[in-house]
Design a protein that fits this description.
Structural class: alpha/beta
Strand content: 15-25%
Order of helices and strands: EEEHEHEHEEHEEEEEEEEHEHEHEHH
Largest sheet: 8 strands, mixed
Strand order of the largest sheet: 4-1-5-7-8-9-12-13
Helix content: 25-40%
Shape: globular
Radius of gyration: 21 Å
Bound molecules: aspartic acid
Number of helices: 9
Length: 344
Amino acid sequence: MKRPRILIIYTGGTIGMIEDQETKALRPFDFSHLMENVPKVKMLDYEIDNFQFHPPIDSSDMSIAHWQQMARIIDGNYNRYDGFVVLHGTDTMAYTASALSFMLEGLAKPVIITGSQLPIGEVRTDGEENLITALQIAAATDHDGKPMVREVAILFENYLWRGNRSTKSSADNFNAFKSNNYPALARIGLGIEYNHEALARPADGDGLRVIYDFDQSVAIIDLFPGLSQVMLKQVLGTPGLKGIVLRTYGAGNSPTTKWFIDAIRNAITRGVVILNVTQCFHGSVCANRYVSGDILSATGVVSGFDITCEAAITKMMSLFGRGLTHDEVVEALRRPLCGEMTLR
Ligand code: ASP
């Protein structure tokens, strides 16, 4: 039996942080620190290589350039490794997982993203277990010898979640992520129990094709009672604006006031794509359940169904980055590209 070959991409985050002696604040440390602190990794009979970001970053500094760097590393090493483990801060992990899922077309190997709530050097760290479990999942195969996971996923504490369905749900629980609209891909307890029905099973294709470009001419607008006409007009009138993720109430509802509906309709007439995503943690946009949702959808707003905000904004940036026409972007937003939403 050949030993599994795994590439760890260490981007930064709490998992590799240490306490600054003077300020007591956490700051990124280098990867050798991480391996020193997890001698158990050596007990896995895997061939493990690593690539380290210089400098490692707090994931609050995550950018498109960093996503491109991760994708380039995966692309360049795709045939050499059985799986990839990305160590990443928790703050923007769900955005990175979503972005990578749209970038890595034809992915048929595991890209497991993990991190931790406590630095790996601390006695009660969750980082050691998360790293080891992520490595085991990245190395796992099914009965046919194919990778068990063939998608971008987040491993955190007791669960493996689909990356583009995940959201950071807690700033201090060890179970820091949730996927409110899609079941866990695996449950981690005494063993790793895979949910075979939930795992992506992409058809055998032509191999990996990475789509690197993103277009940042997008924004997120969060509705709240009191949102002013001036603010809304200002954002919708931003020169060069191409797309908006509109975070609406409940099943996709918005104010029905004339100025609000007119502002949305005018933006759509000018060619801005507006995607309706619910502010609720659980459930889907169902545009015609209420009159308010019905009026909004009549303006030409596109339903995002049960997509997360993280997946919605990264999908939009990726679609516009591909140089698609307005209609092609709308068409692609209406359907799942890689399991990021369920149509109703
Ligand atoms: N601020 C840190 C980061 O996202 C938090 C973490 O790693 O959990 O990089």
